[in-house]
Structures are given as C-alpha cells and as structure tokens.
C-alpha cells in the first residue's frame, strides 16, 4: 500500500513529504495549470530534487497522437531523468505508445482509465502502473470498487507485474475503498491526507491527554522529568 501526492506545487511537496510516508509524485496538465506558466522542465527537476531518485515521479504527455506522445516521452526522459514514469492516457493512440515505450524499457503509467476493458488492454500493452479514476467513475455511475477489484483479480490471476495506482479522489473514504478493493497505490491531493489527521475528534482526544498530563505535571514534558 503506497501513497503518492497528486500535485506539482513545490511548497506542498516539501511540506507533506516531510510529514507523510509518500512514495512519489504524480502530475498531469490540469495539475500543472494550477502552478501557472512555470519553467516546466526546471520545475519537474526541482520536484525530483525534493523527493529524491528513490521515489517515483509520474509526468504526463500532452500530445494526442502516438508519434507526439513518443516525442514528449523522449523529451521528458532527456530533460528530467531516465527513471520517471511517462503517463499515457489509455486511448487508441495511447495504447500504441505504451507498447512502443515498454519495448524500449521505459517506465509507463497508463492513465485516464474509466473501466476494466481499458485497464486490461493497458496490462497487455505492458504498463507498469494503471490509474483508474475513482471519483470520476462514480460521478458517471460506474462502480469504482468493482472496476478496481476486477483489475486486481486479473493482475493476480495472470501474474502481471503492474500495479494499480488509483486516482481522482474527493475524500479519504474513497481512498480507503480503493485500497480495500485491491489498489496497491493511491495518488491523492495533499488536503485529503491533511484532513484525515485534523478531524475534531482527534484534536479533542489529544487536548484531553494534554490537559490531564498538565493537571499533574504542569508544563514539564516526559523528556524533562527528573
């Protein structure tokens, strides 16, 4: 079970990778848009500098056709690093690109998945990660849990090396259900993880502990007791 941050904001990445057990960073054109007209390659290299080479960095192509996707991938590999995961939407053009990239030994994340059949094709094409869109599927009446469970079953049955990287969440409950359904990883907006640990019940419990301790020992913490 792995958590990734779905953001390209450098301050968020610095802050939350210090707090949470984060395995990597994902981005897409919509996430990059939030940062404004950045120096793109410099920005991605800054992300890599923050997270280190041992964590995964997933960057999406912007071209719509196979040849353009391959050119995007080559540029990203040359201007960021060879260990990044190239995110490719699972379309007709995308599946072709995934096959070619995997034949070259390049890491690939298949994205924009809305159903089992898409995922099964991406598995056969050799994708390393599959990114089903949990909340977006729910919004159009697709059973997200069933989709993820079906993908997980095929991975297990046929021993694919791929992992499910669930994406598109609106709350922590969806993330929990994705993991319970068989996702090995989830990429989430940092605010979702923050909200998990800042629930009023948790804060109240901690405040009671603090009050009870201070009622006996004052402001002296354990580390400074005689």
Automatic annotation (TrEMBL):
Keyword DNA repair included in the entry's annotation: no
- The positions making up the signal sequence are none
Keywords noted in UniProt:
Cytoplasm, Schiff base, Transferase
Q: What is its main location?
A: cytoplasm
Location(s), subcellular: Cytoplasm
Q: Name one Pfam family in it.
A: TAL_FSA
The record's section on NCBIfam families has: PRK12656.1
Protein name per Swiss-Prot or TrEMBL: Fructose-6-phosphate aldolase
Native source species: Bilifractor porci
């Amino acid at each position: 079970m792995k958590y990734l941050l779905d953001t390209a904001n450098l301050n968020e990445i610095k802050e939350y990778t210090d707090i949470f057990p984060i395995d990597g960073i994902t981005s897409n054109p919509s996430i990059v848009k939030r940062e404004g007209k950045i120096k793109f390659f410099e920005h991605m290299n800054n992300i890599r500098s923050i997270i280190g080479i041992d964590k995964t960095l997933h960057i999406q192509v912007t071209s719509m056709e196979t040849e353009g996707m391959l050119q995007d991938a080559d540029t990203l590999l040359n201007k960021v690093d060879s260990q990044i995961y190239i995110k490719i939407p699972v379309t007709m053009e995308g599946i072709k690109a995934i096959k070619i990239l995997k034949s070259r030994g390049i890491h690939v994340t298949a994205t924009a998945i809305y159903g089992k059949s898409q995922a099964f094709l991406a598995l056969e094409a050799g994708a390393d990660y599959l990114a089903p869109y949990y909340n977006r599927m729910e919004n159009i009446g697709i059973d997200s849990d069933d989709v993820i469970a079906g993908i997980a079953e095929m991975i297990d049955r046929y021993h694919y090396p791929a992992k499910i990287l669930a994406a598109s969440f609106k709350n922590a409950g969806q993330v929990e259900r994705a993991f319970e359904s068989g996702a090995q990883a989830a990429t989430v907006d940092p605010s979702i993880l923050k909200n998990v640990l800042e629930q009023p019940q948790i804060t109240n419990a901690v405040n009671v502990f603090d009050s009870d301790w201070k009622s006996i020992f004052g402001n002296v913490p354990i580390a400074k007791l005689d």
